[in-house]
Amino acid sequence: MSAAALRARNLRTLAALAAVFLLPLILAFYTYYGTDWRPARSVNHGTLITPPRPLPDVPLTRAPIAGAPEDGGPPALFDGRWSLVYVGDGSCEAACRAALVLMRQTRLALNADMSRVARVFLVTGACCAREFLSHEHPGLLVLDAGAPAAAPLLDAFPGAQRADTVYVVDPLGNLMMSYDARQDPRGLLEDLKKLLRLSHIG
Fold this sequence. Notes:
Mean pLDDT: 82
CATH class of the largest domain: Alpha Beta
Strand content: 15-25%
Number of helices: 5
Largest sheet: 7 strands, mixed
CATH superfamily of the largest domain: Glutaredoxin
Shape: elongated
Number of strands: 7
Radius of gyration: 27 Å
CATH topology of the largest domain: Glutaredoxin
Low-confidence stretches: none
Structural class: alpha/beta
């Protein structure tokens, strides 16, 4: 074989090897920058509320539930702890009950970290299913949000599908995530574990 033919064969081999390594890279660049396709950036299960919404400081009173503390003053709301929040009617029908159970079980599953998380039920009216709440959800902070003064607080929570939604509020009082209570309950637990692990507050 002549030197020219050998050189040509070597060049073809080199070109084939370069194509094997470079074509996937070129295809990846084209897919990412030349099309509308993007990989999912989020690994959270809930819906992030961006930017987080600072919740107004509205004084609320505890609903009269058996076993609830009666200190005579408004409770410290969204102050220093992460909070799982449900907003709904105090009669607490099926969707409400399912959401409260999700909140309770998620908090219990945090084990040593459960003291960092509060459960809050903002009651918009018809307060309350007292026997159910006191027996099934001890420690739940049930607050009367039915007065007109509570409207700015309630307006901060997205209204669509609110009956099936659990909200996450950070220790600084920012509404930052919502979660569909009808979905796999492990999703909320995984998101909350991640938040607690990364958080230096609360």
